[in-house]
Amino acid sequence: MHERERDAAMSDAEILCKADSWDQPTRRSFLTSTAGAVGSLIVGGAVLPTVAAAANAKVIRADFNWGALQSRIQGEVVAANAPEFAEARSALVWNKIKPDRSPDAIVRVKTENDCIAAVTFARENGLKVVVRGGGHTWCGLAVRNGGITIDLSALNESTIDEQKQTAVIQPVISNRELARRLGEQGLAFPIGHCPTVKAGGYLLNGGMSWNMGHWGPACLSVEAVEFVTSDGRLIKASATEHQDLYWAARGCGPGMFAIAVRFHLKCYPLPKAIAASNYCFSLNDLRAVVDEVVAAGRRMPDNVELSIFLKKAPPELAAECADNNGKLCMIAAVAFGMTGEESRAALAPLEEIGVLNKALARSFNQPSGFDELAIASGETWPENHRNLCENQCSKARPSDILMALRDKIIEAPSDKSVIVFCQSTGTRNLLEPHPEVALSMDATSYGGSWAIWEHEADDAANRKWQDEVVAIMKPFTSQHYIGETDIVQDPARVQESYTAEKWQRLEAIRAKYDPQGVFFGFLGGTGKA
Ligand SMILES: Cc1cc2nc3c(=O)[nH]c(=O)nc-3n(C[C@H](O)[C@H](O)[C@H](O)COP(=O)(O)OP(=O)(O)OC[C@H]3O[C@@H](n4cnc5c(N)ncnc54)[C@H](O)[C@@H]3O)c2cc1C
Known about the structure:
By secondary structure, the chain is α+β, with helices and mostly antiparallel strands. It folds into 3 domains: about 45-150, Uridine Diphospho-n-acetylenolpyruvylglucosamine Reductase, domain 2, CATH 3.30.43.10; about 160-270, Uridine Diphospho-n-acetylenolpyruvylglucosamine Reductase, domain 3, CATH 3.30.465.10; about 275-485, Vanillyl-alcohol Oxidase, Chain A, domain 3 (3-Layer(aba) Sandwich). Helices cover about 25% and strands about 25% of the residues. It contains 15 helices and 21 strands. The strands form 5 sheets. Strands 17-14-16-15-19-20-18-21 form an 8-stranded antiparallel beta sheet. It has a 5-stranded antiparallel beta sheet with strand order 7-8-12-10-11. Strand 7 and strand 8 form a beta hairpin. Helix 12 packs antiparallel against helix 13. The longest helix has 15 residues, at about 460-475. It is globular, with a radius of gyration of 23 Å.
């Protein structure tokens, strides 16, 4: 049996796992591969270094008849030889680490018709396209080598139907803005954690959301997606139309092979009494804390989001954490209750754990809301920083994973770096198999490491740290999360984000909807790049 098929068979077996029978870290082996060849690109006479998969390497061209495309759209074409191109290319990527890749042109569309015109122009000229939503993929996937980056930034409208509890949104609306617009109508949606991340890319990835234990990954609440396809049609994919495309749209992420221009969302009544508890512990007590917290999670309802952070201590606890280089373990629990009493009861099991008397600090059942949660996440993952991210899911015992990573957080070269794992609450696992969507994650916990720092001079030290952390996590990993895995660093992680069966189906659907390969697809050595 092929190694990958063997892995898939294991995944099926894992479905039978009970929450208290943790996977052993050594069960799974993974393929590894290198980032690719080092080469160079020529842009307007300048030579830029590039680290890219050899299959992607391409000489930049600015000599297409971009004027013809400009005359067909309301938006704007910025060709690679335009004076403002370098700045425009840099702005495509949220991360301060910018990719050494470059498109032939950036097309800032204003309308869905502009999307059709851009795809048609690309197809007619033998160019590839990639979509840029909010530019938040950690490894800068909205910038590829050559072709057109279609920038959807202007597509940010929404209509909300309060009665039907539905919304139709364009892709580039931020988590925070979507929560605000829905909240005004008494509604909510499983948005992502950070305030500035945009809905489109997040939903296509699958969407690891707030209150995921209760609402499920965000893609389960996507009822339809309107797409501009590679042949320039505008079509709707749903449970009744283009079902295969609808399946792919919920988990395909950066491999998406059509432009998603509208998402039809199922919404929920706004939890009116969101409340949060926080507990800080010394890393010396890590195993006992994690074991007790994870067990308490199973006594909480599934509308509590329970996360375990390894991070820098707040200033008031710095002295107490000095023996661990100022780092500690923070437990954060957020209850999405409809009443104060519901949230209080939901959070109560954490007040009963045996290690509570060792807490360095604690706050119980503090009123919160989506906006407060967004602000808190924004502080952990700040703007204008250099970032590396690896997010995976696991059925291993959480204390085994976190104990393996304990020394790494202590020695992290940047105090801003963080390790976080979100845990199951209630009786269901946090991520369960969903055959109706491409998203393949199946786990009791998900999370990973984020190296976050400011200065380019510190790149090498942080890269080394992140690689070492990822290597430690690897034996515990059942799948990577396609929305937050570094597929530039290791292209094998594309396929490791899916079961073998789902991967094959995804590629068959891609071949049907994009037979000429107009869309770049996944970057790297796997899939059509
Ligand atoms: C600070 C931060 C916090 C995050 N938190 C979370 C979180 O809580 N949960 C979570 O699930 N993820 C999270 N993410 C990851 C996030 O889901 C991805 O970065 C996602 O790609 C962001 O969407 P985007 O539109 O900005 O992507 P972009 O970088 O613009 O696009 C990435 C790729 O997605 C594809 N794509 C994007 N939009 C479209 C579209 N409309 N049509 C077709 N293809 C498209 C393209 O292939 C593109 O190359 C976070 C990221 C950051 C930076």
